[in-house]
Amino acid sequence: MENNRASFGSNFGFIMAAVGSAVGLGNIWGFPYKMGMSGGFAFLLVYLVLAVFVGLAVMVGELAIGRKTGMSPVAAYRKLSKKFTWMGYMAVLVPFLVLCFYFVLGGMVTRYALGYLTAIFGWNTWNVSDIADFFGSFILNGGSMILWTAIFIAINAFVGMPALFVMLLIVIIYVACQPGAGGGYKFMFGWNIKPLQEDFLKVLKTAAGQMFFSLSLGMGAMITYGSYLKKQESVQKNAVIVVICDTLVAIMAGMIVMPACYAFLGGETSSGPGLLFLSMQIVFSKMGYVGNIMGFLFYALVFIAAISSSMSLLEVITSFKVDQNVEQGKAPGRKKYAIIVAILVFVFCLPTALDGLGSGTNGGATIGNPADVLGMHWAEAGDITEFAEGTTYYVKGDDGIYTKLAADEAFVEGETYYLDTSKTWNADWLDFYDMLSEGIMMPLGALVMAFGIGWIWKIDMIVEECEQSGHKFWGKGFFNLCYKIITPIGMAFVLYAQITGFFG
Ligand code: PHE
To answer: CB of 156 closer than 6 A to ligand 1?
Structure first.
């Protein structure tokens, strides 16, 4: 079949779209908080190694497969080999799972950006006496979480970057001038591989998931973008540009958040997914009035980044349906399906918006954690005759609520004791969706694709596609090594670590 798709008007247009997809909450929300929790420099090191040895090759592979087939993922993989059609379906499922929390986070960012905008004009909408309390009350307010999610989705479904770099730079420079900021740079860039010696697999799996998520890889996005890339453009050059720009923005976001944590929060970097909201808000409040302007700049840029990424996530799902319609001789119905998909995702976002980011019903959230809802949070301790050292036991009250035993509680014969079986992934819905998508399916998608290119279809398929219009494919040996060995083996480790963590 000839490639009769519309394509980007210019290569610049393509780069803006691809970088727009890649740069998003992954960079500004995910990267700093994961780095903060996983050892700073050690995480950065593993991340950069993965981006060069896995990310770049997978990026080239996806763009080339997309352009070669001229189709979106399901049709693209089916065309390569019927046996790989499931990869295409997974590539459509993953953005769905990602959107189930991406929209909620996007909504939260929208709230923060507008809150700071009004504050510049003297209208305080936080309504708390201590700014540190805002995040906690916001995430427990199911109504407003849903409202802001809906606002963000609505903007996505109806709307069709250099400023970003400038805004990031302003905030970077401001933060750099604060006393104590140096600790943040040391945390990020000072040689320290202790975290790798302590738990290599944990850093590896965190960095790998982050790398795929941030580069929009291991799912349909870049295949779809590749299908719009003109034949006379260089696949490899574009892949390098996207990987470098995306990594730069992530590091820039780190250079805002990490030094800020050191300057204002005594070096506390490991507060997790709330870091972008809770910690940064405290940071802005410590700046006084100018913090309103900084806060607005900061959240506005995160908002822009989030919108362009979530539109590309939606696009993968929508274009799957549109391609299917066209194949069956029906009208494409792009607008209609964009809205239907957006509404469908909204429904699946509800648990993410309503569980208070894992606060649980005991913590005041409207609905429970996945663990509670799926009924796997608590396990009976079994026939025990005494408390084991280092284990925390619970008893179940008549009201169905589990209470933790105090350390000095005496053992009672015949009493039923319970253990808390929560893992990160079942502690909140965000992590549940995140684990399935960036934790498991993205590495799996990359593993299978790299294996297919390395061993089944052979690298020559990629080389041939990249060498159209007289471009020379460089680094064939390097890419071959990445496809054949590094990506499959590296990702097998990631999956092993992820799956044992998930079920173990
Ligand atoms: N890369 C985007 C981010 O960093 C998220 C994304 C993932 C977008 C996959 C498209 C596809 O936020």
So the answer is: no
Q: What is the pTM of this model?
A: 0.85
- Of 161, 312, 319, the one to substitute when testing ligand 1's pocket (max ligand atoms within 8 A of C-beta) is 312
Quick one: pLDDT at residue 504? 57
Q: How many CB atoms lie within 10 A of CB 380?
A: 11
DSSP H helical segments within 265-392, as ranges? 280-285, 290-327, 334-354, 370-373
312 lines ligand 1 (CB under 6 A): yes
CA of 309 to the centre of ligand 1 (A): 5
CA 332 to CA 25: how far, in whole Å? 30
Distance CA 449, CA 462 (A): 12
In this structure, the dihedral spanned by the alpha carbons of residues 121, 123, 129 and 130, taken in order and rounded to 10 degrees, is -40
Quote the CA–CA distance of 209 and 490 in Å, as a whole number. 12
Atom nearest to 222 CA in ligand 1: 11
The C-alpha atoms of residue 399 and residue 455 are separated, in whole angstroms, by 58
* Atom of ligand 1 at shortest range from CA of 94: 9
| pLDDT digit string, tens, across residues 190-236 | 999 999 999 999 999 999 999 999 999 988 899 989 988 999 999 99
Distance 403 CA to ligand 1 centre (A): 40
Q: What share of the chain is helix, strand, coil (3-state, %, to 5)?
A: 70, 0, 25
